[in-house]
Write a structure and sequence with these properties.
Length: about 70
């Protein structure tokens, strides 16, 4: 089943995107900072969410991991 039609898979993909963008921005900030608008601006916005809301994102990642490992 596609991640678009399964809500839990969609949330997992979004969390992974946020975490990956924040990690890439920590390693190479110029890679994401030059694309603040347009379609590639989504990655910059995900990196900002990952930086500013990092305790909440980390909690959601732990909760999602628990859900995937023990509930499914």
């Amino acid at each position: 089943m596609s991640a678009i039609f399964n809500f839990q898979s969609l949330l997992t993909v979004i969390l992974l995107l946020i975490c990956t963008c924040a990690y890439i921005r920590a390693l190479a900030p110029s890679l994401l900072d030059k694309n603040k608008s347009g379609i590639l601006g989504i990655f910059w916005k995900c990196a900002r969410i990952g930086e500013r809301k990092s305790p909440w994102v980390a909690f959601c990642c732990v909760l999602m991991a628990f859900s995937i490992l023990f509930v499914q």
